[in-house]
Amino acid sequence: MLKRWIYALAATLLLTGCGGPNNTPEGIAEAFLLAAYGNDVDALFEYIDVPEGTGDEEVALVRGKLSAHLARTEKYTKSQGGLDRIEVQAPTLSNDDSQARIEAIVHFNNSDAKPKTERLRLNKVDGDWKIKI
């Protein structure tokens, strides 16, 4: 419980103390993964590209599915000793710089825990980078 609170506090400080994450593919990817591994669906949802015209019911359905997935992710993270750090790699940008692909390596506290590679796609929406799901 204490570790979860610490991760939530760290994510909050990261997002509010510095005016939010750096609006780069790397900054958004790291903030998104911190929210995901910290089981913070509200923060996570801030970084998702919700296409125009998406209805409230569809958003609620996605939010529910993400909540269930984050609960499983939190359980896995705890079984690996908690989150140690996230190493975000350099992105690959599209020719017009409107899309990016990025990899991040998630490290856990248990010394025998295998790092997990996350692959994310991002879209630039009205000047802001968002995660494409």
Task: List descriptors.
133 residues, alpha+beta, Nuclear Transport Factor 2, Chain: A, 5 strands, disordered N terminus, DUF4878
Short description:
44% of the residues lie in helices and 25% in strands.
Share in helix? 40-55%
Q: What is the top-level CATH class? A: Alpha Beta
* Straight-line N-to-C gap: 29 Å
The fraction of residues assigned to DSSP E strands is: 15-25%
SS field, number of helical segments: 4
Under the CATH scheme, the architecture is Roll
For this structure, the CATH topology is Nuclear Transport Factor 2, Chain: A
Number of domains: 1
Tell the overall outline. flat
Radius of gyration over all CA atoms, rounded: 15 Å
Mean pLDDT: 87
Name the helix and strand elements from N-terminus to C-terminus, one letter apiece. Answer: HHHHEEEEE
Structural class: alpha+beta
Uncertain residue ranges: 1-19
| Strand runs, count | 5
What oligomeric state do the depicted chains represent? single chain
Query: What composes the largest sheet?
Result: 5 strands, antiparallel
